[in-house]
Batch of 4 targets.
Target 1
Amino acid sequence: MLARPAPITATCVCGLRDEVAVRVTAYAQPLARRLAGEGLGSLLLAATVVGSGVMGERLSGGNLAVALLANTAATVAVLAALIALFGPVSGAHLNPAVSVVEALRGRLSWSNAGMYTIIQVIGCCCGALLAHVMFELPIWQLSVHVRTGPAQWLAEGIATFGLLLVVLGHRRSEDAPWMVAAWIGAAYWFTASTSFANPAITIARSLTDTFSGIRPADAPGFIAAQLVGAGIALVVARWLFPSKKATHASLNADATGEVPPNKKPEALNA
């Protein structure tokens, strides 16, 4: 009599089941609701990044290390909260690099990815302007903060590479908020660029001449480096996490980029 196969560990199967279930729920939401989630989440993220930079600079007495620490703490906290909150609604991309990678994986249609990107940029820019209003600063401004050169571009590539590796490689959906937040918090300090790792945030930060700003002329270099880092992360993740690749490949989005509600992924039919 053949022995029954040993059960696969819960870490592998349950984690993948949970993540796939959350992804299906998010991408099955009406497009308008998903875009609203991405827009609101992006607005709150940018408002936190810019606002905490202003507050940190005002309270630090010229100590840039203290200002950066305050900026980091606020960003880490809001990232964890927003990902946990909007994950079931839209997938909580809040980042065009993530949306592009999801499209490259066939998880999101290119038309939906384009709409995600547009709403993320609009949301982030509105968040920067909101921070200006809260701190009684001129609403419309351009940054003069110089951030350019090979070292800065390399730092942005690495920051985005690590972020996407976390996004693609985490095993359980409940791990995403703290893992993404932890990576960004660390990258704030070990990268020369202080880890923008997000094209939408980069554009928004070019519109604020505050602690977190970047010159508009320097933004394209950052964005290019971020997209290169995201692309490399996708290639590496496909090799490192083959089981996740197989699971995600079973999610076949329809022409609108939404998963049909009556279609279960193979991983959930076991």
Target 2
Amino acid sequence: MIMRIDRLLTELPPPSEPDPVGAAAVQELLGGKFGEMSTFMNYTYQSFNFRNRQGARPFYDLVASIAAEEFAHIELVAAAINTMLTGAGEGEPGKSGSLKGVKGTRNTQHFIAGGAAALVQDSNNRPWTGDNVFSSGDLVEDLTHNFFLETGARNNKLKVYEMVEHPAARALTGFLLVRGGVHQLAYARALENLTGANLMKLFPSPYIPTDKIPECRPHMKRGQHLCLYRFSPDDFLELSAVFNGTHPETGEKLVIAEQTHPEGVPAHDLPAQRAVFAPGADPEMIAEVAARLRKQAGLPAAPSGVVAGSNGRAVKNGSAPSAKKSTARASKRRKVAVK
């Protein structure tokens, strides 16, 4: 099972100018053949289906722990897409023309099927499918596939980095190029330790040195290109048996992090987008109901969560920027008591 922590793996900038076209391109990193849905579900099902775990424990620990991090990568890509769409779904709910500004975007489903938000799709609006999952049961075959999957993922991240200039997309791809590179390296080392095949000569693949990307350098400076996390306080203790040696680009030693997982950072509390009814046409009414329910449950009056402030630092009991005033009809609805 997976324990969830309400943090993002890395800091993303707050919403700025919306970029629905760029967000559609970033969707490839979520729901594409080499996207984070594919890496997460491939490694997750391989770990579910892993036979003779005790006999091959270091390899099982590797696949299972990387699968856990991939869940957080999906969350991060979705957060970047949502940041890029924020502002494009503003407008008076129910009014003709409120969304006319997005009818020419590449993926109108962001606003029709979703609340100006990420969807489980690729950059051509095609839904992600379980056909992208490969779990043969043969350890060498699965590890080889995973190395290929991470190589394709790195290729796509580099192309999206070259294509999309929005700050959220740049921050996202800079981080994923570093961490995805670790996973690419982990599967290469696992194959080498298992079979003797030296895949280190293939790095970096594609042949773009990671430290050439400015957005990658802060993460490399913190050693994020060298370590794997266990994502468990008591399990997956044999990672070091297969994840070892030196980094093929820098020559530095590969390590297992002392922390079970990255500390993470709070996410920005993205504001309501009224024209797409997210979280509703009248978000103030929902907030009032939530406050009333907290009071009835004996909880503190202020929300208990932690979100990022405008400067990126954690703000406890914070909330999203207040949305525009509701219409007169919405104001009347808010007066309906929930007892």
Target 3
Amino acid sequence: MLISFLLWQCIIAIPLSCFMVLLRYGSHRRSFNLILLFVPPSPMKHPFAIILSLLLLSFSAGLAIVIPDPLPKAPEPIDDILRLQILLDTQLFGPGKLDGRPGEFTTKALKRYQLAQGLQETELEAHSIDLASVPEAYSTYMVREEDLKFVGDLPSQPSAQSKRKFLPYDSLLEFLTERFHSAPELLEFINRPLKLCALKPGDAVKVPTVQPFLIEELTEIPKLPEVLEFQARVIKIDTREKLLGLWEGEKLLASLPTTPGSGHLATPPGTWRILGITQMPTFRWDKSVLEYGVRSESYYELPIGPNNLVGVMWIGLNRPGIGIHGTNSPQSIGRSASHGCMRTANWDVVRLVKHITQGMTVIIEGPAPEPRPIVIRKAEPAVPPPEPPKRGFFQRLFGGK
């Protein structure tokens, strides 16, 4: 009996388990849920066979990930990729904005996480990370009346922004995208036909199951306290790869996508030190600094808020004007350039500062700022002095001037 049971598992149950995984994950539409029970003949004689088969199926499904070919049309998310993004984000190996789509920073986050866990680095479709810790990709958030405190009119010009006391989100949709680390296109797709541009308190919104970014818990702190046990940790930033890594000896603790400067305003390579960390900073907006790196007397002091240009956190380095900070544009992280600093999403930087401290070393690797071209203006030809007015006949005759 035991031999027949083992033969059944090896010849029938295991192949069929794999086939079930292919059936389940071969379709990108997650409404296709197929449950098969692989039970040997005379199941009553082997009641544990059902349990073993189900465990086998669950294990196989937990490890499997299939990227449909062709991909579903954007922005439709792929459930397995979204669950992987949630897992990586939860472990502070940021894939960038959650969108459920394959992409550069999801792959980079995966490989860095595999490195940290001592696993073989693979591409998305070949990874073997168990996604059982993310059984559900989505949860429901009820929009609250108090959420409206952080939403309001947002001027576009620094001159007008400087007259405000707080720079809020411009919509509840922006509030939710940052709270749940998401691309707006993802939230709009999974909540169809709900119009997210017209949200109001009491509306139920489907969101990814991530640790929410809680703007309401952030207060103004000019300088976060020093944590001595973090002093030996090192932040390493690769501006070419647009990645920030937090290291403790040879152990990679976290990895986040970042937007460094480039060209004339490239983030300066070298070994630096954290001078201090400010929560909910203001920002001195100086066009001369942003464009040329030279401080001027023409500037605007921008107030705190999630839409401040440096976001909700400033990690200042011992290089004047250079730091690691949040952003008012998380959707562009890794996809654009800054003015010399290193931008990260607000939801990432607020978690990063819980693992770092003043006095830590920051190593920046990458190209140095490009020298600005010297513009030599051609000398203007000298303008000859005007000729004296000609004297008329009578002026010459009578000596008039």
Target 4
Amino acid sequence: MIGLHPFAVALVSFTVAGHPAPSLSPVEELIHDPSQRVGPARRATGLAMTTLVLAALLTFALTTLFSMAGVGAALILIPVFLAFGIELQTAMATALLLNAVGMSIASITFVRKGLVEWRLVVPMLVLAVGLSPLGVWAAHGMDRSLLLWLFVGFLVFAAAMMVLYQPKPRATRASLAATLALGLPVGGAAGFIGGLLGVGGGNIIVPALVASGLEPKRASASAAFVVIFASISGFLAHVQVARIDATLLGVTALATMAGAALGARLATEHLSAAQLKRAIALVLIAVAVKTAWDLLWP
């Protein structure tokens, strides 16, 4: 029988804070009632309806938030899935596939608005997609604690990029050669790290593209398109050793599609970049601190 990861329980409690109820929440019921916990037999028969509804609601909210920044929500969905007893590799595979679905929906809006920088996206795809399976291969041989520590580091890095990175506006864009010189290695690094940690790598790509001279909205839109294929590549590698719950994937995929469509619309029409970055950073830091706490004092 697989118990809940303490950090994951705290994450879900943090996410739904402000909505008290007289009875135990679905996640708390999983803690106090062993018969409700997700184990191998539980996976075989499917997850409880309350679990599926909660997972869908969290996926919708988080995907909406992260899609506005042009990055996938995989890095925050992984601990949510851990809250339901999903094994780490399976959580990574599911989150990566949802990443691809969400960024595909968001990219429809970004492409229609003419925000994707095709001269940079196409060559970046080659390295990002090519190195993502290498990251997955490296993850399979790693200790779980080490992998989670790397995940904590990535969360802190992503939060720092959201809050501290303030690129200076440029009168003209960088040349194609200069853009590729920075973008291609970053695309490769994003693909490898995305495969290693089960994330899309958008939080690496966006700051690099802005530094190369791209306007922030164009950088987010271009990164979103790259993340689609990097996530698919990582998913195909992870799924070889993962057990996917079809029902969970179905309901969260629908929630992802709705959240990504809403997030992309808000990003192109109503987005306050500074407020959005602060909100995402707070969530990332909260998750990183709780994960590190549980690793140090299990």
